[in-house]
Amino acid sequence: MNILLWVIQILLAFVFISHGRLMWFLPPPARQGGQMAYIEAIPSGLRRFTAIAESLAGVGLILPWLTGILPWLTPLAAVGLVLIMIGAVIVHIPRKEYPNIVFNLVLLALAAFVAYERFVLANL
């Protein structure tokens, strides 16, 4: 089970750090078309906050548990990602971006699984 958790944590960390970087550094013309058009619909302050929160949570999924320093931060990072994914679903629903909604729900489920396994079953 521990190997499965690490694989999921690493994948989630990669996805959220990458998406946070895209939200922060992607030039506006690239955001206006295709799958990333929703980024322009988010107010700039919320976009910056989300980019930072996703990136930090991605790091928080790996480092605390790996180093053993404050390992309780790992399940909290996963819970934070669950909350971010709930917000993402709320943003995508009125825009009728159904593939993004499904992807967000998958990420939400994976983050909830990590939070449960690392927090409840590890008796933290």
Verbal overview:
Helix content is about 80%, strand content about 0%. The protein contains six helices and no strands. Helix 4 runs antiparallel to helix 5 and helix 5 (about 75-95) runs antiparallel to helix 6 (about 100-120). It has helices spanning about 1-25, 30, 40, 45-65, 75-95, 100-120. It is globular. The protein has one domain (about 1-120). By secondary structure, the chain is mainly α.
In short:
The protein has 124 residues and is an all-alpha fold. It contains 6 helices and no strands. It starts with a helix and ends with a helix.
Reading the helices and strands in chain order gives: HHHHHH
Q: Please describe the biggest sheet, giving its number of strands, its sense, and whether it closes into a barrel.
A: none
Total number of helices: 6
The number of distinct structural domains comes to: 1
Question: How far is the first residue's CA from the last residue's CA?
Answer: 17 Å
- Rounded average pLDDT: 89
The count of strands amounts to: 0
Q: Unreliable segments (pLDDT under 50, ≥5 consecutive)?
A: none
Instruction: Name the overall outline.
Output: globular
| Rg computed from alpha carbons, rounded to a whole number of angstroms | 15 Å
Our estimate of the beta-strand percent is under 5%
Helix content: over 70%
**Class of secondary structure makeup:** mainly alpha
